[in-house]
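testing teh design pipeline on a random one, pls ignore if ur not involved
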């Protein structure tokens, strides 16, 4: 149940993050109708399963913790300063999520697919890291662990999203390299995957 300010902050920030994603998806609301425009499709059928597992940690367990007593057995207490660090980390995650979508624009696709009109984006936050959306979700997951004082709900997103990122990021990079060739390889040399490359 929502019992402290950090539970409330998590819920407000969750709503903000969900709104950012919904607005971005709405901008490309006809992406599922553009099957004929897909030049590269790397969906292998397992992505939906991994995304479901990730959503358990991102949505189901946190909301079960916030709105039911089912996970009370796993509650614990942290000093207030930990929650304030979590608040700052979540704010950074939301900024990065918004900036990633803004910089990507019409090139955003929730699936491992490249449409004919897609181009390689290397500006904005993409100038420094190749996967800022994944980086924002990792920050979100860390913030969740700091804000939700529960052994089940707190670390759930971080633990349950790791398989998705471990599997999906290399496949996405291979797809981009196959599509954009040398341009992508040079881009990858000067950027980090989810953390900026030092000295570049």
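output:
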């Amino acid at each position: 149940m929502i019992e402290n300010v950090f539970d409330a902050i998590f819920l407000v920030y969750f709503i903000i993050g969900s709104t950012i994603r919904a607005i971005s998806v709405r901008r490309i609301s006809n992406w599922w109708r553009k099957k004929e425009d897909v030049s590269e499709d790397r969906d292998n059928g397992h992505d939906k399963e991994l995304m479901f597992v990730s959503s358990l940690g991102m949505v189901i367990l946190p909301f079960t913790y916030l709105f039911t007593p089912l996970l009370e057995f796993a509650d614990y207490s942290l000093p207030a300063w930990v929650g304030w660090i979590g608040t700052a980390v979540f704010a950074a995650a939301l900024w990065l999520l918004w900036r990633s979508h803004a910089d990507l624009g019409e090139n955003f696709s929730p699936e491992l697919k490249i449409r004919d009109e897609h181009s390689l984006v290397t500006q904005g936050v993409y100038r420094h890291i190749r996967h800022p959306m994944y980086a924002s979700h990792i920050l979100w997951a860390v913030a969740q662990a700091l804000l939700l004082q529960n052994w089940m709900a707190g670390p759930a997103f971080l633990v349950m999203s790791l398989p998705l990122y471990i599997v999906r990021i290399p496949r996405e990079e291979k797809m981009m390299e196959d599509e954009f060739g040398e341009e992508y390889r040079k881009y990858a040399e000067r950027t980090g995957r989810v953390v900026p490359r030092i000295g570049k």
